[in-house]
Amino acid sequence: MPPHALSLALAPRIFWEPLAPISKTSTVSWLSQINQHKIPVSNWQTFRLLVNTALKRLGVSYDPSAIEKALTHLESFYLGDGWYSDGLTQRRDYYVSLAVHFALLIYARLMEPYDPLRAATYRKRAVAFAQDFVYCFTAKGAPLPFGRCLTYRFAQGAFWGALAFADVEALPWGVIKGLYLRHLRHWFRLPIFTSDGLLSLGYA
């Protein structure tokens, strides 16, 4: 659901405004289903956060309490020095960067006019996290292979793009660009596509 919702929020002139009124109503109803189900207390809280953030940005019906509950859960994961766990667990892997930080940086960018204090906090934590996360990549862009997110491949570097989206210069922009591009080039040098051009299962 979050990619659909974010597409609407980030490019409403393309994805939202052309819709007929009945289609808009149906879309909001479909996305709002996320508020009617129990979601694990993990990085999945970012789904509910981003959907409701997007709906708010569109100026349609959303659930403010869902945003608050998701942010409260995510705050309970915070460990200090920019690091989160994935839920109240010992899990420390790429979900910290590609899910938790990624979603909170999007929130910081989209919701800064409404929630400036938390937006500033999430930016500050991303800066602290980047100082450690940079060492998860080799000079040629290969990521440290660990944790549960290996099949996501180049999503391991998504944090660097999220910094750019949120305008957070956690490291010099040239360094961030180099980290991200070398990471993507690393993956595209590997045989990760099937013969018909789809991403294959597996890692490298």
What does it look like?
- With 204 residues, the chain is mostly helical.
- The chain folds into two domains: 1-76, no CATH class; 81-204, no CATH class.
- 54% of the residues lie in helices and 2% in strands.
- The chain has nine helices and two strands; from the N terminus they run H-H-H-H-H-E-E-H-H-H-H.
- Strand 1 and strand 2 form a beta hairpin.
- Helix 6 packs antiparallel against helix 7 and helix 6 runs parallel beside helix 8.
- The longest helix is centred in the middle third of the chain and has 18 residues, at 116-133.
- The model has no long low-confidence stretch (mean pLDDT 95).
Give a quick rundown of the structure.
This protein is an all-alpha fold.
Helices and strands, with pairings:
Blueprint: H1 2-10, H2 12-15, H3 21-32, H4 45-58, H5 64-76, E1 78-80, E2 83-84, H6 95-111, H7 116-133, H8 158-165, H9 173-188
Antiparallel strand pairs: 1-2
